[in-house]
Write a structure and sequence with these properties.
mainly beta; Immunoglobulin-like; four-stranded antiparallel beta sheet; three-stranded antiparallel beta sheet; elongated
Length: 158
């Protein structure tokens, strides 16, 4: 954080002061750019949860999108395809109530996210499959036949 300037009781800064004076906006910038704030302010406040980690891999026949989303049920997900844009979203609402002798505690929880991916033209839209196992959502994106790698071959000269 920036160093604040010492000002004597008469309100006048010393002309011989070696302390540099930085403006209010610089001080605010320093406040929000020091720990622990960066991790707090880079999260997505609108979603109630951070975006899940994603692995994308390619094989000779398919692309795979694997998303780590533990604690969900397969019914919590919405997977949509619109004009070569794959959208994966979820909304999860949770309400618990704990009643003991003379008090009741109710807690509400809400979490959601939405991730979108633009698919390459080589994906066969009609054969996309999704599975959810052990906290991992896997979406298989098969390639069109004409986009699949062909084995090497030798061409004879006639």
């Amino acid at each position: 954080m920036s160093t604040l300037m010492n000002v004597p009781k008469d309100g006048q800064a010393s002309k011989n002061s070696n302390v540099s004076h930085r403006g209010w906006s610089n001080w605010i910038d320093d406040l929000f750019n020091t720990d622990p704030f960066p991790s707090v302010f880079t999260t997505n406040f609108n979603t109630g949860m951070s975006l899940p980690k994603v692995n994308i891999k390619e094989t000779k026949d398919d692309y795979f999108v694997e998303m780590a989303v533990p604690g969900m049920k397969k019914d919590d997900f919405n997977i949509d395809l619109d004009n070569k844009v794959l959208s994966i979203s979820t909304e999860h609402k949770e309400e618990t109530e704990n009643t003991q002798e003379n008090y009741t505690r109710r807690e509400f929880g809400y979490s959601s996210f939405k991730r979108t991916f633009t698919l390459p033209e080589s994906v066969d839209d009609n054969k996309i499959k999704a599975t959810y196992t052990d906290g991992i959502l896997t979406i298989q994106l098969p390639k069109r036949e004409e986009a699949k790698e062909k084995p090497a071959r030798t061409i004879k000269i006639s």
